[in-house]
Write a structure and sequence with these properties.
This is Inhibitor of sigma-G Gin. Pfam families: Gin (PF10764). InterPro entries: Sigma-G_inhibitor_Gin. It comes from Halalkalibacter akibai (strain ATCC 43226 / DSM 21942 / CIP 109018 / JCM 9157 / 1139) (Bacillus akibai). By secondary structure, the protein is of the alpha+beta class. Helix content is 37%, strand content 16%. It has a domain of 48 residues. It binds zinc ion.
Length: 73
Amino acid sequence: MRSGVMEMPKTEKVKMRLGKQCVICEKRREEGISIAFSFICQTCEQEIVHLNDSDQMYNKYVKQMRTVSSQYV
Ligand SMILES: [Zn+2]
């Protein structure tokens, strides 16, 4: 006999299909690379590779990495 006891909602582990949030473009992607605690989507990874000589892109990348890193400290 149930005496007003609420049933606990079933907790279910759901596989994340939305992907992770890219630290650079801040969009969720399923494919990409993980560096330390950061996730970089395939698109941005390609950009980094292609714009390897670009200080602007590199600075943005480093800045984003620092932002993310500080969140985990
Ligand atoms: Zn990205």
